[in-house]
Amino acid sequence: MSTYQPTTVGPTWLHPVVTPHLRQGEVLLGAVQCGIDDLLPLKVPRAYRWKKPKRSADVESWFGALFNTIFPEWMNPFTVSWRGPALGRRSYRAIRRPFHGGSWSGGWQSTAGQLLCAVRNAAAPKILWDKDDVTLVLTSHRLLLLSSESRAGQPQAEHLLAELPRGAYVRRREPHPARQAYRLDLAFGDGSWLAFRMGETETVPAVAALLD
Predict the structure, then answer these.
(1) Beta 154-155 vs 150-151: how paired, if at all?
(2) Does the 3-46+102-211 domain belong in CATH 2.30.29.30?
(3) CA nearest 120: which of 184, 37, 204, 54?
(4) Concatenated DSSP letters of 87-107
(5) What stretch of H or E contains 64?
(6) Kind plus residue range of the DSSP H or E element containing 4
(7) Is 132 exposed, middle or buried (0-12, 13-18, 19+ CB in 10 A)?
C-alpha cells in the first residue's frame, strides 16, 4: 500500500489523481502542477511526435477550408481564433529570449529531450504538440510526470507521461537568472537538464528540498 508522509509538498487535492500511479510501499513526497519553461521549443520534431488518434469528420476544419476558398485567410474565424494567441506567444518569446538564458540542454534524444517530448506530446488531438502544463510527482522511489487535466475546476484522472528512478535526477547546481523566481531546473544522469516553471515562488524551495 502506498503512503503519504505528513509534510507532503503540494496541494492535497492532487492526492486522489496521483495515488493510482504509486507502487506498493512507495511514499509520496510531493505533487505539484507546474509547467515546462516558457522558452522551450514549442514544437516537437516530427520524428519524436506521438501519433494522434484519428478523428472522424471534423466540422470546424471542414468549414475552415471552405471559408478559405471564398475569403482571404486572415478573415477566417476558424483559423484566426488560434493564430492570434500563437502570434502573441511568439512575440512574447522573442522579446524575452535575449534576457532569459538557456532552458535546456542535451538534444532531443537525451533524458531532458525525452521529458520535453513527453509533455509536448500530451496535447489534445486538436492542439499540435505544444502543451506546457504537467503534474510533477516526487516519491521515495521515482520522479513521475503526469498529464495535467481539469474540467470545471476539478482535477481529472491523469496519465503517466514519463518516469525516472530516484538517483537519475537532481536539482541543477548552475544558477539561472535570479529574477526567474518561479523556475526550477532539473539535471539528469546523462548531463542534460530541463527547466520547469512552478505555479508559485514558494513551491520552488519546497520541491528543491526533495531533490537535494
Answers:
(1) antiparallel
(2) yes
(3) 37
(4) HHHHHHHHHHHHHH---EES-
(5) helix 59-68
(6) strand 3-9
(7) middle
192, 104 Cβ separation under 8 angstroms: yes
Residue type, 144: L
| Sole residue written with cell 476539478 | 154
Indicate the angle between helix axes 59-68 and 77-100, nearest 10 degrees: 90
Integer Cα distance of 187 and 106 in angstroms: 10
Mean pLDDT of 32-37: 94
Cβ–Cβ < 8 Å for 123, 133: no
At 207 the three-state DSSP class reads helix
Q: What is the pLDDT of residues 104-131, one digit of tens each?
A: 999 999 999 999 999 998 764 444 556 8
Q: Which residues contact 63 (CB under 8 A, 6 or more apart)?
A: 78
Q: How far apart are CA 124 and CA 148, in angstroms?
A: 11
What distance in Å separates the CA atoms of residue 79 and residue 81, rounded to the nearest whole number? 5
Q: What is the pTM of this model?
A: 0.76
Q: What length is written for the chain?
A: 212
Residue 69 identity: T
Alpha helices in the chain (DSSP H): 15-18, 59-68, 77-100, 111-120, 203-211
- Per domain, the residue ranges of the chain are 3-46+102-211, 58-98
Residue tagged 512575440 (cell numbers): 91
